[in-house]
Please model this.
Amino acid sequence: MNQLGLIVKLTLEHIWITLIAVTISTIIGVTIGILITRFKRAATPVIGTAGILYTIPSLALFGMLIPFTGIGIKPTLIALVLYSQLALVRNTFVGITHIDPSIREAGKGMGMSNWQFLKIVELPLALPVIMAGIRTAAVMNIGTATIAAYIGAGGLGWLIFRGIASVYTEQIIAGAIPVTLLAIGVDYLFILLEKFLTPAGLRH
Amino acid sequence: MTNTIIRFDSVSKIFPEGTKAVDDVSFEIFEGECATFVGPSGCGKTTTVKLVNRLVEPTQGTIYLNGEDISSIDVIALRRNIGYVIQDVGLFPHMTVAQNISLVPKLKGWSPGEQQRRTDELLTLVGLEPEGFRNRYPHQLSGGQKQRVGVARGLAADPPVILMDEPFGALDPITRAQLQDEFLRLRSRLKKTILFVTHDMDEAIKLGDRIAVMRSGRIVQFDPPIKILREPADPFVENLIGKESGLKLMKLSKISDIMEIVMNKISDKSAFKEAKRLMEGEGSDILLVVDDWEVFQGVIRFDQIIRKEEGRISELIDRDVPVVKDNGEVREALEMMLKKKAVWLPVVDDERRLKGIITMTHFACFFAEGGQV
Model:
């Protein structure tokens, strides 16, 4: 069936959108997360803003972006990145600030610069928590990207909306099941990745 | 003439909330000494020590390290040349013991070979067998082991100055005593200048060359342990010392300090005639018998040899005599005398060579002079 070919194409499209979105989100989110550990007064307002963004319903956000960006990939990626900020910024912040104070004191006292301490101690120790944030963002983005099909982003959502519009159940399922499997699969992949990337000393 | 390594010049620290943690403090620390800072919670001892590696910056005054104003030195370079050992250790859990220890050397650009060599050297020094501990992770160590690694880490780049902030505070009493003893052993091998913070006066007395007693941000007294015990500056210091300061003083003296260098000894090869002659000459009932290498053999008494004419003393030597070591504490001699019901004891060195004797009279003098050596 060339339905299969279509499903594969749309799945790849879906993965591609999610991948770009998660990558951009991570770079921006982790950076902001690190910055607010250095400028703690900004932490609450920044995380608060990310939280507000998170609560905006996806179609509403798309609706607000479309006048500026048109439809298709652009508003989709912008929205996905904005939604992901809460998980990434907050997890990065919490992961870093919850490091045992005695570790911080020892590191500072032994003569590590800010940057060295971040690279050698803070990020490796915060990595498990940050990875959990990326996992959350990835799975959420798969879901939101499904909705973005409505505004022309492509991906498996297209089949679902098409199927709903033409009351064609098999088409709905042809979109719904792969996207569900994708979400579960990505979640599982990240769990494995987290385990793999957790520093040996923390595995107990 | 010892150099001044650290000098505080009218240093004060007032925290933003208004607490005056350090109040116009001035003192000098000399090269190679271990200065312990004692006092109750909040007295400023930790803050004072943290001023040295600039984890805390002074509000007023200047601190000099080897004559240089530390505020003019790059703070990172300063800290890399000062060892820092804290109560909770702060080992990096994601790194092995070896990686933890070699971190500062690594940051300083030592080669991997030098790092490994130094790490193994330090592990041995702190009593952890390198093969077994090098690749362990902190969560696989006991509290005492963690702190040993912490000390090794502090010593890694061979800094001339080490700051220790209640390093043994989180350990159980037995481990603490063990580490204190090892600290003393280490100290005799390494010539480091150490600032040691503790809230335990007994620990300060045991480990310090000089003790700085602090209260409310000021140094109330800064003297060697003997002077603190014998001449406390005020009731506050007295209170910190606690009861039985006299007995604590006793801990500071060694048996060799108060024993008498023995004169009436005799070789184990001697004849009875000689023994009798010596006893008459010395007016003594008893002689201490040694071999050709001065190793203590036992005693010979007048009533044993009174009827003997011919023969050697060796068959009659009473070898069942308790001894004490010359490097032991005065307290131990008293303990032995009480236990063995002896009024005197021979004093020997580690090779059991006779060094002197200690008697009740010596104790009497010791106490009469207020425990002064």
Q: What stands out?
A: Chain B touches chain A at residues 53, 55, 76-82, 84, 86-96, 103-104, 107, 137-139, 150, 153-154, 163 (CB under 8 Å). The radius of gyration of chain B is 26 Å. Chain B has two domains: 4-252, 256-368. Residues 256-368 of chain B form a domain with the CBS-domain fold (CATH 3.10.580.10).
